[in-house]
Amino acid sequence: MTPGDTERPVAKSADDAAVSHAEGLLSTPAAQELALRQLREHLDAWVQHESGARHGTDPEELHQLRVAARRIEATLGVFKHQLPPRLVHARKSAKGVLRALGHARDLDVQLAELRQYAARLPEEERAAAAPLKTRLEHDRTRARARMVAMLDSEATRHWLETLKVASADLAGATAAEAPRAATVLPERIRVRYRKLKKVVRRLDRRASMDDYHAVRRRAKQLRYAIECGATLLGKPADDMLRSLRRLQDQLGAQQDAHVAKSRLAALVAETEPLPPETLFLMGRLAEHHLDTTRQARRTLARAWRKVSGKRWKALRARMAEVSELAHLQSQLRASEPATAIAPELPALIEPHSVRH
Q1: From its phi and psi, is residue 164 left (phi > 0), alpha (psi between -120 and 50) or beta?
Q2: CB–CB of 201/212 below 8 Å?
Q3: May I ask the CATH class of domain 180-339?
């Protein structure tokens, strides 16, 4: 190089990129390390949204708090064999927290849907919605009081403290021979996919809302497991997650409509009567919710094909690659440094699987 010249970076070939990507996979964290890292992220999200959820002015804060709790519960479930018992036992508390948050969230959703529905009515009919809105707001106030009591309870504070202390104490304490995330996650994802497929196959014309709710629950479990390994699994994981979100959205709309319709029926049966015009409006609203349920059921088969078709095949192939590399990783620990076999790795990874 002559004076004044500057050295330019050499562009990597596809094989060079594949080697670099393979070496990155060979250094993937232990399953426990990844679980603890994600628990800390979800706990940070909980702290970020708890105050807003308590305040109650923005329903999105409660929604995000519930998402944080779901992801905590999902992480504890995905890595239940790699985490110590005190963390695994904390999963039971997460389920109780989710139930309390869910009751308040359901009423937020129903009030938002009532506002949207009433906004489309002729102006002279909107007044009929006011008594229903008042009754739902009363129920929401009670549900929120129970939710805040749950958040303040000794059991919930102990649950959060256990998660916080345990995830901090165990950080960096993973043994070198501990199972790697690249080994654990593909197997957990395959198990959850099989469970989802099984409940989907049970659906027929006579399927109940409980049957559809089981599909939604299994879809969420699969989605959260894939999210745990999204960075590791690259584009196939991203594509699969998009399809699962669409499936979940349709199932969620159906479930929300069913819950809202059931609450309308319960309000009609209450001893304190509502005005006739409000009862008439509630009948129309119940029919609207029933139409939402029917529409969701009609489009569910198409959404499932998106999940179970080429996207699942691509993700399954990607997981096989990752599992094979994880096997090599364990061999390397028992024998020689990773650099000794790095030149052989491109054959295991197609150039298209390199994530940019």
Answers
A1: alpha
A2: no
A3: mainly alpha
Q: Provide the CATH topology of domain 29-171.
A: CHAD domain (1.40.20)
Non-local (6+) Cβ contacts of 214 within 8 A are 199, 202
End-to-end alpha carbon distance in the chain? 31
Contact of 112 with 59, CB cutoff 8 Å: yes
Q: Where in the chain is the domain with CATH 1.40.20.10?
A: 29-171, 180-339
CA dihedral (250, 255, 260, 261) positive or negative? positive
Regions of the chain short of the pLDDT cut 70:
1-27, 169, 171-177, 271, 329-330, 332-356
Structure tokens at 273: 């009567």
DSSP 258-285: HHHHHHHHHHHHSSSPPPHHHHHHHHHH
CA–CA dist 194, 218 (Å, integer): 10
Taking the C-alpha atoms of residue 171 and residue 33, their distance in angstroms, rounded to an integer, is: 7
CA proximity to 188, closest of 83, 41, 291, 56? 83
> What is the DSSP code string of 301-333?
HHHHHHHHSHHHHHHHHHHHHHHHHHHHHHHHH
Beta-carbon contacts of 352 under 8 Å, excluding residues fewer than 6 positions away, are: none
Specify the residue for token string 């699942």: 312
DSSP-assigned beta bridge partners for residue 30:
180
Q: What is the pLDDT of residues 21-59, one digit of tens each?
A: 444 444 577 888 889 989 999 999 999 999 999 999 999
CA separation for the pair 260, 257 (Å, rounded): 5
Query: Structure pTM?
Result: 0.78
Share of the chain above pLDDT 90, in %: 50
